């Protein structure tokens, strides 16, 4: 391996090859003075960077850009694994402001199960040119090629024609609807509802097109040249022409060199003023949360990596999808099967229960089938003479939905939130007509699916992605209204069990972990007569494989109001989707199973689907319980005895475990739910010998460490690994903020509190029970952040107590203790039966490995 530079014919250049390692450079003459381009290759087996070669770049007085494969690994460049020596060396150069790291923002090296970013693009402090870095796709190398465009002028990057929503004339937009009449469909049919929705979309799209300008390019890194810079460029060009005509003289060479230096100095001044302007924009946007974070994201430079080549097998042969069209086809073929319960899969489930469900649905067919005619009197409250939805309800629902990527309608939230009252009134009327008939409009049932890679597993596997449904925005508004009614019914009637902590008010992953940990700590405090095993289950393709008929059956059992039941059943009927990769759209396919990830109704419907699991055994000897967070299902098996543990008691505990696993397996078989055995974890808490668990003749392996909702723990400790991971993640997040070192302190503190501090303190419980040494390890990250906020780098002595006081920033231990108090007050105020029982369990001998969080916080 080695390095090479190809230079376009006709350019004046000088090769620089007096480097020690595989580094080469070229000094290229331009009308704005020389620019030096360098490249190098440092193989993974080399432990050190070519520092002498990089020092040339640092000391050089000309603008210099470097692009090469250095095989550096550090959190600064997006790695979460342990940094290597070369990564640390490059990070130190960056922190000393010796060089600047400008990219790439995407992964450049792909293997069958990972993607990394070993390539680096660097500049020295003299570099003032505009630049734009993009992926050039795959070539003969095993790396993505990197295209770097540099220019003294603003770089215009062609893009797919898009409408510029930031420059819409909203007053003119509203005026487009002045002549739209009020609609009244009472007494008409479902067909008229679909027709009116089509008309409504035509009206909105026409108004949008008439008032929204179109962009065909984007401007990147727009550093504007000053009049002085342009004048110096012309002078330098004139001197260069004279040199070509008359030949080289000492005086002329000195004048050209001095002019070049003045040009570089002025270019750097332009760069500095541009960056100051960007910082000012952040400071001006500080009061508007949305604008503030948008500006931070722009300057952070982070981009989501696109979908790499996908690999599937056909007849034992690897088929590679390279283009967007090929990827779209591959993903469509894969996910049309995923969002369906195939006949082969159906053989694994209970056929008798399927027949029972279908019989029940047939007996209640009138309750789950839409009515053809619209009769608003059916849904009018006899006491108040009001309909289920009014214009205020619709306006509130519009405010609640997020302004995210639009679905098939291509309408973003501002086009809906700026609709005039007469259109909102028509939309409200249409929603009430839908509710009266039980029809969920077909325009709302089509989704465009984009895919986000899962954090682990091969990116080349089309199944190793998380599908996100981009939905019609009016459908999101309607789903928000329906979800509010459904959640109100479920909560008022206590239908969702208290073990469920996902997608519920006053519940979160923090409350689940606190409940679970405190119960374990109290059970372990009783001495050596308790055996505890955690079973962590994760449902395979949970949202994508929901059995529609089974879900409708369970909705019937909840006693939900008939009109709401009818429309929820229709919500699941005849749904369609198509895959989207960049601008490529796949063929439409039917969704025979699943609920769309991205719809507000889907989490609530999933909670209903998995709500009636078999109650765990709870008696004098077995204290089993369950904790749920959406599709994360944790079974806790506790066997208590009156004397110390022996072989016979371990066998009793083994039977307890196998019985609870088998009961849950049978429940899943009834309702066509499949546990992902790749994520199935069974961990025995404590040093007792682990029993061999056998289910249906298969041995379930034990694990010594596990992860639950971000909490990483081992069989003997809930703290050490979590503290180590928190510290690593927080330092990586802090490293990405170093480019904002010139922001004012108030905004840097805001960035730290939002992007770094939560990584240090999660989960509040049980971190409030960690040792002083472990708390100091977390405090180290905050100390580094304070140095960054005040621009005080080592070896400058920093008065940390004074800096904490100036920033009004709590020490980590004080913050965790205060937040833990809030968590426990929140849990107690909810008056949960589970926590009432937990807090009555005595703690006569507190366990050193599992100290009680509650006792340390509130007692």
Automatic annotation (TrEMBL):
It comes from Meganyctiphanes norvegica. Coiled coil: none annotated. It comes from the Eukaryota. Pfam families: Exo_endo_phos_2, RVT_1. GO terms for molecular function: catalytic activity. One of its GO terms (biological process) is DNA biosynthetic process. Residues 433-700 form the Reverse transcriptase domain. Signal peptide: none annotated. This is Reverse transcriptase domain-containing protein. InterPro entries: DNA/RNA_pol_sf, Endo/exonu/phosph_ase_sf, Endo/exonuclease/phosphatase, RT_dom.
